[in-house]
């Protein structure tokens, strides 16, 4: 009984590492954890991806640390801010992506790009939270509450009529891998593929399944 209590306490203490972010956190796997927003992260995102608003508070968000494999096969550390309701899903999904060496060019906060969706997309950066409106609309995006994530946006562009975003993703606007002239044609997200199935399993929908426009980079819950 005593041994169990001690080991349980030890387990509990190893699942929290305040020394890393100064905030309580949950470790999913080595290198994969999610944390409350620390003062350091708060000052990094305030006035950039985050501002005072009636829709989402910092308490609703989590800072997620992950590992991933890039297109050259290098292991990298990544970071995301998502809604606390999907923090566990995101840690689990990115662990599976990592295990399968699913290539991601970069996974970093959009604040590294001045909260510019365009610049982040051009850099092929995978990112989630940004308090902003839907592209071409006055309604709030699901990114504004951290419930959406954009994966390798350059090779999975947003396509509406003749508009392709980012502009440097034009080669990937058509989704036939054999016809695609882009360098990363084989990494385009396709209905039914590994990443699609993984997000679906966690209850997300895919922007590539939409009818009015196609947002191939976008998964939301
Ligand atoms: Zn999106």
Automatic annotation (TrEMBL):
<feature type="signal peptide">
    <location>
        <begin position="1"/>
        <end position="18"/>
    </location>
</feature>
<feature type="domain" description="Peptidase M15C">
    <location>
        <begin position="135"/>
        <end position="221"/>
    </location>
</feature>
<dbReference type="Pfam" id="PF13539">
    <property type="entry name" value="Peptidase_M15_4"/>
</dbReference>
<keyword id="KW-0732">Signal</keyword>
<dbReference type="InterPro" id="IPR009045">
    <property type="entry name" value="Zn_M74/Hedgehog-like"/>
</dbReference>
<dbReference type="InterPro" id="IPR039561">
    <property type="entry name" value="Peptidase_M15C"/>
</dbReference>
<protein>
    <submittedName>
        <fullName>M15 family metallopeptidase</fullName>
    </submittedName>
</protein>
